[in-house]
Design a protein that fits this description.
The complex is a heterodimer. Chain A has one domain. Chain A is built from 2 helices and no strands. The model of chain A has no long low-confidence stretch (mean pLDDT 85). By secondary structure, chain A is an all-alpha fold. In chain B, helix 3 runs antiparallel to helix 5 and helix 13 packs across helix 18. The N and C termini of chain B lie far apart (115 Å). In chain B, the strands form 5 sheets. In chain B, strands 2, 3, 4, 5, 8, 15 and 16 form a 7-stranded mixed sheet that branches. Chain B has a 5-stranded antiparallel sheet with strand order 10-9-19-18-17, with helices on both faces. In chain B, strands 1-6-7 form a 3-stranded antiparallel sheet. The chains are: A mainly alpha, B alpha+beta. Chains A and B meet through helix 1 and helix 2 of A and strand 3, helix 5, strand 7, helix 9 and helix 19 of B.
Chain lengths: 93, 549
């Protein structure tokens, strides 16, 4: 083979390689972007679940529910008599 | 061979030229229609908090589900899944699924867990045709608590009642517009923000959720105990005008607002008009003291029966008290005595003072539907009207008006504007602008002393609380029925109290409508509810009684 032909083949190979590299990079970029958007979507879903759980917690601690459990399950009642007892600090203290 | 190869390559190049150069715009448009779309992300609606940061209303993620009836596969499978998961009748679901339409709503607000389960089941079955759109669902973790104040949001995310309606523009936010590039596999490859949206602004209320809860319990108990048609409690901080609680017996679960009645949705404190009865003697007395027409020790004839323009007006239970001081008129709520005070004052001056106290006009509280009350001009008053108004008849007020006017007495004469929203989106907050001074502070102090006597030894002893100085006034007003006038046996029973007396931090107004038990007196009925509510407030706030100072 002549040197010219070898040289041309080399140049053609380099150009082809660069083209394939460009296409590969573009594809990889799209792939990573899709993964990122997928992760964002999963995050949004998890955040949504988190907010739903937040609501369930708040609802579980709602005053009406706490009062109902206190009365019906724990037998608690409102105090009827409150006595105030003054405590005086010891002068020696 | 080489010629054939060359012809083939030329053909290929020609086809490429046709597709990529000549028909370029057509194929770009076709790709865009399949790969690109513009979506609008609904904004998260602002959260509503109580004054201590407790959640009252907030958004959780939800999904709106629609069906593409034209392209759907296995509609029977889709209908079965939807009917089972959403609890809808199969007939109703079939009507939507089999409709010949690209887009039919099935449910506008499905909780996330259910929507994801439906999505998984449909994917597992291999069926196609459901459209899931991200949306928000308004949730009220406290259920019916403060429902008449908070209000609710409709299916389209707009406020329909209460503060949700009043502050809809602030709470709503603006959607974010996105330009999305998707691949054939359905994955998102690029997201571009076209228009940045913003979530709704948060509201912080002046309401204390614990105090609201105990007031709602006490008014419920009170209405049941005294077999009243209805009742309300308003608690104000007179130093700032903050409404700490606005409770009534008729409420509804905000998470199931569609089950509520118009009566339950109505906020009584701003919309229900009633004649205040003897509570009004506080304001007649204040006006008379300020005008200098009476002194605390002035004496009057407290016997039953005073004739005004041919009409005889009586004391409660036709009781005669003999000669009484102005102080005793307040303490024992003596109608005949107070009428004589009003006659010294005169209609012009009295009406002017009532307007100064805020009667006859809306308070301006940030709640929808507030009414002005009824206070006719002085030139429309007859001598009977003057007498009647002095004892709280022939005038009509709302609960918030009366509580605010009482707060004026508590705040040493500053007319306060009640507020229920502390801040919007972080703005506002602690800027309390003192109201105009309408009454001399010394006069207010004097009146509070007189009101303390009401609770210690007068008509309001049922409201007394051991260890605490409470100043208050009772009221039992005849109730007028449209077309019938004043009807026997129909009364509005009231008590308004404030404590601690020296520098009140709380004003509590209790109103009961048409008590059916006897006696109907405001001191006995509303006074007891005041006692219970105030006692619980004291325990809640760990207030220290006077004896411990």
């Amino acid at each position: 083979m002549s040197i010219g032909l070898v040289g041309s083949l080399l140049v053609a190979s380099v150009i082809a390689g660069l083209c394939f590299l460009y296409v590969w990079q573009g594809t990889r970029l799209h792939e990573l972007t899709a993964q990122r958007e997928g992760a964002r979507e999963r995050l949004a879903k998890i955040e949504g679940v988190n907010r739903e759980l937040e609501f369930q917690i708040e609802q579980a601690f709602s005053l009406e529910r706490v009062a109902r459990i206190a009365r019906t399950q724990l037998g608690m009642i409102e105090p009827t008599v409150v006595r105030y007892v003054p405590l005086f600090a010891d002068e020696a203290d | 061979m080489a010629t054939l190869l060359l012809l083939g390559m030329l053909g290929l190049v020609a086809r490429l030229f046709q597709l990529q150069i000549i028909e370029h715009s057509r194929w770009v448009a076709a790709a865009a229609s399949m790969q690109e779309r513009t979506i609008e992300l609904p904004p998260r609606r602002g959260t509503i908090f109580d004054r201590n940061g407790e959640l009252l209303a907030f958004d959780v993620k939800a999904a709106a589900i629609a069906v593409d009836g034209i392209n759907a596969t296995e509609p029977g499978v889709l209908a079965a899944i939807l009917s089972e998961e959403l609890g809808m009748a199969i007939g109703a679901v079939n009507e939507k699924v089999y409709r010949s339409s690209y887009f039919t709503w099935v449910d506008r607000c499905v909780d996330l867990e259910t929507a994801q389960r439906i999505e998984r089941r449909v994917a597992a079955s291999g069926a196609y045709g459901l459209i899931f759109i991200d949306t928000w669902k308004r949730c009220y973790p406290q259920g019916a608590l403060a429902s008449n104040v908070i209000g609710f949001v409709g299916t389209d995310g707009e406020g329909l009642e209460g503060l949700e309606w009043m502050f809809d523009e602030s709470l709503r936010g603006t959607p974010t517009k996105l330009h999305v590039l998707e691949g054939a596999d359905g994955r998102t490859y690029r997201v571009e923000v076209l228009e940045e949206g913003r979530p709704g602004e948060d509201l912080v209320l002046t309401i204390d959720v614990d105090l609201q809860f105990l007031c709602e319990e006490e008014i419920d108990h009170g209405v049941a105990q005294f077999r009243a048609e209805g009742g309300m409690i308003v608690v104000l901080d007179p130093r700032s005008g903050d409404v700490l609680a606005m409770a009534q017996d008729k409420t509804y679960d905000l998470n199931r607002f569609w089950d509520s009645t118009p009566e339950a949705r109505r906020n009584l404190a701003v919309t229900h008009l009633f004649e205040p009865g003897s509570i009004f003697k506080v304001f007649t007395g204040l006006a008379a003291l300020e005008e200098g027409v009476v002194d605390v020790d002035d004496t009057f004839n407290g016997d039953d029966g005073i004739v005004v323009a041919g009409h005889t007006m009586h004391n409660s239970e036709y009781h005669s008290y003999g000669t009484v001081t102005f102080a005793e008129i307040i303490e024992h709520s003596i109608n005949t005595g107070m009428i004589q005070v009003a006659q010294r004052l005169g209609a012009e001056a009295f009406r002017r003072w009532l307007a100064e106290f805020g009667f006859g006009r809306a308070t301006g509280i940030e709640l929808p539907g507030e009414v002005d009350g009824i206070l006719r001009p002085a030139d429309a008053w007859s001598r009977v009207d003057l007498a009647a108004a002095s004892i709280g008849q022939s005038v009509a007020v709302t609960g918030i008006q009366l509580a605010s006017a009482m707060a004026t007495v508590a705040s040493d004469g500053s007319l306060i504007t009640p507020r229920i929203v502390k801040s919007v989106g972080g703005a506002g907050g602690s800027d309390i602008v003192p109201g105009p001074s309408v009454v001399n502070p010394d006069t207010c102090t004097t009146m509070r002393e007189l009101m303390r006597a009401v609770v210690e030894s007068g008509t309001g002893t049922w409201a007394a609380i051991d260890g605490f100085d409470v100043a208050g006034k009772t009221g039992t007003a005849q109730k007028a029925v449209p077309g019938q006038g004043y009807v026997d046996g129909k009364y509005t029973s009231l008590f308004a109290g404030m404590f601690p007396m020296v520098a009140p931090a709380y004003v509590i107004l209790v109103v009961l409508d048409e008590v059916k038990t006897t006696p109907v007196w405001g001191g006995y009925t509303a006074g007891q509810i005041f006692h219970e509510a105030a006692s619980r407030l004291i325990r809640l706030e760990h207030l220290v009684p006077l004896a411990c100072w």
